């Protein structure tokens, strides 16, 4: 069961503060959409509006064509057929794992329909359903435990099981992995994707972690300061950022100032006739005299190397060894650039180097 | 239990509705809009509730304040002038201040020492010590003074056993001493939480920076505890101004008066201008109390917010070879100040007549038999039980509703309510009682309900006075339930009724029930308000003990006190059971990201 989500010009004000500035979003039924943005960008507020926990100041939200939220009328969460995983899990300390799932099964509109409405009274059936749901998240053996007797990852699974128990059309997740430690987070990504595949709800997933968003989502909505910066597939967002914010926040790109001449880009500080191919770059960058270069796109040659002498002159400021690669901080004339290079290419702090686009990779987005 | 008193008595205890929003820099208003809107619907937008609260909780106090400036219908300061001209009243004011301040200093010193022992040192049997340090708090102050009066003095137990003349507590310094003993637990609790909240790391950091043990204490620990101590001192001072039982039992026969006993005498005297004179005295005493409240508020604001949420319970300081002597001293102190007075009272209650020799031949159960046949005593017990439970129930409804609003809705209306609940509680009992009389003679123009002297007025007064206790207990219980826990119920499809029945009630139950018993205990042993509002037939146990004592029925008053203590013991049973339940439940609270719903 899945529903299409449509938000039209959603705005939200808290007093003078504009938390959401006329946001329009469409998620096709059954898709997995991540809302990515730094803290305070309004992503949680948007999710709470979707759940019916808050009221929009303007615009409206439709599930499968029916208005659920508008400034005049807003359905309460229990009438929306949604599931939600809270950042703090929000488990009920006095209930066992099984009771959590039973609660959602008993009270959820979708759950009632799935059980055939009248058959609610048949305790055994509900129980069987609950156990089946717990099996799908691997918790069936722990079903008599209280939340306090579970580990972080297990609590996360309970929250997930409870959210999907009612067979909701829309599954909302508010930074569900942020309270877990790093290894568990990666494991749970797979778990959530698996549950999504089996279950098929339309998922709206809020996160500030771009790895998480890229690894899981079909589509990413990048938000900043209450507005949508860019919407697209993970690859589009990563390789073709269309704003300064997305380039910095998602691709961690260096924004090289320079001048454009048709399809060619001439970096301002570069010497030796450096020119870069501008074909793969969004038009935004042409209009603003910049070129986004992701750290792994840079190549470095030593200034002492006679063959070199082409590119942007810089001095190595610091090097971090990260096993697979080396992270360089490079001091240009005005700015500090970032470059990630394979461990074989070694420079020491203080060394003078030339910065250029890696010839092999070409410019941004040869892949896209 | 203790944690509770603490919460109930520390004025600035409630924190603002917490950071429910999980985006850190998201504004406060974003919070639980749906819950807020739902709650507001039931409060009638909060306004109706505010009007109700203002009418019952604030208007009487304001009326009394204005009445103190009235004489035969015109605004005047003449009553104040008349009062301040009287030497007896001037002495009363100085006595009030002198007794309150010196007993506060003494109580805080005792409390600080006890708290330091329990919080920081490796003294043994801490559990038992904590219970005994708290014991005087559970016993009403008039019973404590009664007990001390039986132990000391020329005919007291100590003098009889040893043969030495012991000074009587029926004196100025006796009052100070007994008041200090009664309020030491208050000082102890406040100091204990202040001391425990100081993160050990701060002290270690100071030591690592090269500071000596002493320098660390003076330069790091002390500045951090100071606001807490000062605020605690103000609360103890407030209790000292409020206290009526101790000076009434110990000072009356020696002519030592304080403001609270003067107010009682004015009203009991029923003179022509007694109400306006009493109003003036009340306004003066109320002013002093509000001054203290201001101090408490300032200290609360100046207090440092340290990041350590969890209290640190491991000993930080070893007593080494001092441990045994210190332990011996502490237990001797407990024996002398807590157990021996009660034992003296018990002995006296078994004597045929006060003053006869303490011997088996003079022992009798007659006093108890007399009480069980005495109509006045029995009706007092019945009244007090009735008042206690109805007060507990009513305060539970009003306090819980307001607490839900305060925690989930917030805003000035609910802050106003909190202030309105606080005022009748922090103002001295006599002041409050007088305001109830004055305003319920004719609460609305043309409406004279004629409830003065009945249990109805007394019951209403108790509810108004003690709502704050339940409000605080309910607030702290509700703050421990994270908003998302409540919202999750809605998202899972539960409506309002199901949410309250299946989620909120089980989570709040233990907090609300212990709030109920705290309110009940307070109402059961109350003396000041009932001595002024209670008339023939509506006397409470406190008033009856006072009557017996004033009539010279000393053995009977002791026996009745023992019976009251036994009844209090009955109240303690559910409280203890509840404490056990709570510890079981606290195992179940979930730490979300190490903060949030954890206690």
Span between N and C termini of chain B? 15 Å
Give the biggest sheet of chain A: 6 strands, mixed
Structural class computed from helices and strand pairing of chain A: alpha+beta
Proper CATH architecture of the domain at 83-349 in chain B: Orthogonal Bundle
Q: Can you tell me the overall shape of chain B?
A: globular
Helix content of chain A: 25-40%
The sequence of SSEs of chain B as H and E is HHHEEHHHHHHHHHHHHHHHHHHHHHH
Text of the CATH class of the largest domain in chain A: Alpha Beta
What Rg of chain A, in angstroms, do the CA atoms define?
25 Å
Tally of DSSP β-strands of chain A: 19
Estimated helix fraction of chain B: over 70%
Q: Identify the overall geometry of chain A.
A: elongated
CATH superfamily of the largest domain in chain A: P-loop containing nucleotide triphosphate hydrolases
Strand adjacency order, main sheet of chain B: 1-2
**What's the SSE pattern of chain A?**
EEEHEEEHHHHEHEHEEHHEEEHEEEEEE
- End-to-end distance of chain A, in Å? 33 Å
Low-confidence stretches of chain B: 1-30, 587-599
Going across the biggest sheet of chain A, name each strand in turn: 6-7-8-3-9-10
Query: How many H/I helical runs of chain B?
Result: 25
Number of domains of chain A: 2
Biggest interchain interface, per-side counts: A-B, 50 and 39 residues
